């Protein structure tokens, strides 16, 4: 297979991911102010919550590997990084050999950036350049990786919902550097709170998209997002606000030797209708992963997967 074909084959749906296994997981007390998906953990003591989260990550890694996905697993033994299980927020990788490193809204999330992950990528994949936006934190400007920005890699469109964690200035800088067209818009939950991360509202696969269009209050913006998805060749699966609350858009299409897979949590999958499942199955096999403890922190399986779009050395 040619170099060009290989890059394009992996462009939207990566064959490999980075995951982080936390040893001291908890729902981050700093992030409750703007993450309405986050819930207080049950009466379980903190130690049991940590054990359950570690087991959920271990199981998720095993399931993905059994389906032919390469998983680079890193351990986080620190107690100061409760959200480290969500590495997609601080870095992204791209088929041209670039890596982006991002400015994080909450101070304790900035501690999640791990040099050893970048060194692993440089040792095993062709990394041509690293663009570090973390200096934007000094100006209170933020862009939390592929949480803030959902990328249509093929059509070069960067979808981003306005929020505390997603600043237009940082989005513009990213789009200029990485050659994407920005689609910046508002989306709010049923209580009127801005959606904190775009990737709980929208998932773009190679040939379909999961999206909560009804959460876009402005009719013109709603139509613009829909038109852009359709014109870029995606079959649009519209999700209700209840499905969004159940993380149904927080899924990621992956490529394996078995074909296209859709990594999705059990919570999210149960919220889908049979018709929606049938549409997904035209393009990808759902791989259902049970992560209820981790979801209590306000993110699901897509947040746990930092896709690797780089070419192997």
From TrEMBL:
<dbReference type="GO" id="GO:0016740">
    <property type="term" value="F:transferase activity"/>
</dbReference>
<dbReference type="InterPro" id="IPR014541">
    <property type="entry name" value="Amdntrnsf_FN0238"/>
</dbReference>
<protein>
    <submittedName>
        <fullName>Amidinotransferase</fullName>
    </submittedName>
</protein>
<dbReference type="Pfam" id="PF19420">
    <property type="entry name" value="DDAH_eukar"/>
</dbReference>
<keyword id="KW-0808">Transferase</keyword>
């Amino acid at each position: 297979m040619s170099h060009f074909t290989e890059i394009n084959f992996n462009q939207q749906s990566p064959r490999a991911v980075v995951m982080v296994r936390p040893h001291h997981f908890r729902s981050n007390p700093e992030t409750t102010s703007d993450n309405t998906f986050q819930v207080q953990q049950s009466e379980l003591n903190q130690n049991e919550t940590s054990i359950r989260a570690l087991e959920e990550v271990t199981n998720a890694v095993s399931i993905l590997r059994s389906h032919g996905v390469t998983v680079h697993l890193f351990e986080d033994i620190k107690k100061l990084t409760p959200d480290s299980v969500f590495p997609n927020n601080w870095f992204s990788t791209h088929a041209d050999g670039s890596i982006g490193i991002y400015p994080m809204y909450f101070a304790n999330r900035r501690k999640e950036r791990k040099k050893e992950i970048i060194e692993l990528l440089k040792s095993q994949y062709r990394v041509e350049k690293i663009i570090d936006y973390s200096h934007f934190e000094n100006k209170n400007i933020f862009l939390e990786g592929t949480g803030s920005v959902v990328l249509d890699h093929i059509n070069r469109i960067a979808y981003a919902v306005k929020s505390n964690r997603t600043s237009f200035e940082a989005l513009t800088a990213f789009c200029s550097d990485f050659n994407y067209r920005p689609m910046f818009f508002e989306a709010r939950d049923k209580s009127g709170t801005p959606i904190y991360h775009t990737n709980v509202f929208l998932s773009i696969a190679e040939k379909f998209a999961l999206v909560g269009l009804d959460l876009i209050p402005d009719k013109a913006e709603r139509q613009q997002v829909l038109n852009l998805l359709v014109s870029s060749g995606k079959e649009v699966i519209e999700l209700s606000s209840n499905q969004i609350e159940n993380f149904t858009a927080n899924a990621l299409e992956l490529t394996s030797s078995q074909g296209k897979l859709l990594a999705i949590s059990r919570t999210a999958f149960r919220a889908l209708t049979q018709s929606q499942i049938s549409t997904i199955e035209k393009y990808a096999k759902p791989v259902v992963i049970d992560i209820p403890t981790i979801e209590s922190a306000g993110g699901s399986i897509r947040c746990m997967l930092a896709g690797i779009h780089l070419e192997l050395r």
